[in-house]
Amino acid sequence: MPLVVRAAVPADVPIILTLVRELAKYEREPNAVVATEALVHDALFGDSNVAYGLIAEDDGAPVGFAIYFFNFSTWLGRRGLYLEDLYVRPEVRGRGVGKLLLRRLAAIAIQHGCGRMEWAVLDWNQPAIGFYKTLGAVPMDDWTTFRLTGPALQDLAATTP
Amino acid sequence: MPLVVRAAVPADVPIILTLVRELAKYEREPNAVVATEALVHDALFGDSNVAYGLIAEDDGAPVGFAIYFFNFSTWLGRRGLYLEDLYVRPEVRGRGVGKLLLRRLAAIAIQHGCGRMEWAVLDWNQPAIGFYKTLGAVPMDDWTTFRLTGPALQDLAATTP
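^ inputs. structure came back:
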């Protein structure tokens, strides 16, 4: 059964949303997904799309996906590839689907002149962390991401002179 | 002396690069900046620009800056604002320049329909961390960013089937 990785197309939006929900459940946040098919379609395939998708298929059946976008490093002065989501269905883990997706992402990063590729991992996900280290990825241990959202974001915006 | 925050324009590229270098020195990575004026110009003002800049001025003199771009959350199904760099020159700290920049960024995030605003902070930068918490920003303590760059990125890309 051949494994293939291909670019996502508009017809993939329903399966992408299904896989996003499976990933959120795996990450112990099953209720965190508020995205809709319309929002995902706009983000990936709309006129001002902001992100891109890859689908991994096993004999035509979707078994994994990746969503990525381009960020920017002022220090490097160039774009980077940011991997927002990477997910492989449990029943096919251990067959190299994750590595196949990451290889394709690395090739896309190089093609686009990116100086680096980054992604965030939950600290308890040691199998993933071990795998990423075998690829030569380095944890940015001395940085913490801060997030401003909801009422706090609204409040700060509202005080703009 | 009035403080103002305005969108960066192409003529700001040299001062932006100067401020980026000052920030890198403050972050104890003085040699990490390999960006050039041409690269910064392309990234902020080129045909396929990927990032945006704000300049803070005190009576016409540049005293701080912010560089940001839009990222994407699959869980929210919408864009977010990612603050790549925020810097205020030491001689004007304590006068609200940082807050003025963050307010403007929050307003831009809301205008663009973003569900959240995020940025990374070095763990030893406690003055900044304390300030961000007063705004209601929350540390994403259970996530670590991994980075793949240089030869490791090239090697992974080269193995793409």
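Helices of chain B lie at 13-26, 37-45, 97-111, 126-134, 150-158. The CA atoms of residues 1 and 59 of chain B lie 5 Å apart.
thumbs up if we can close this ticket
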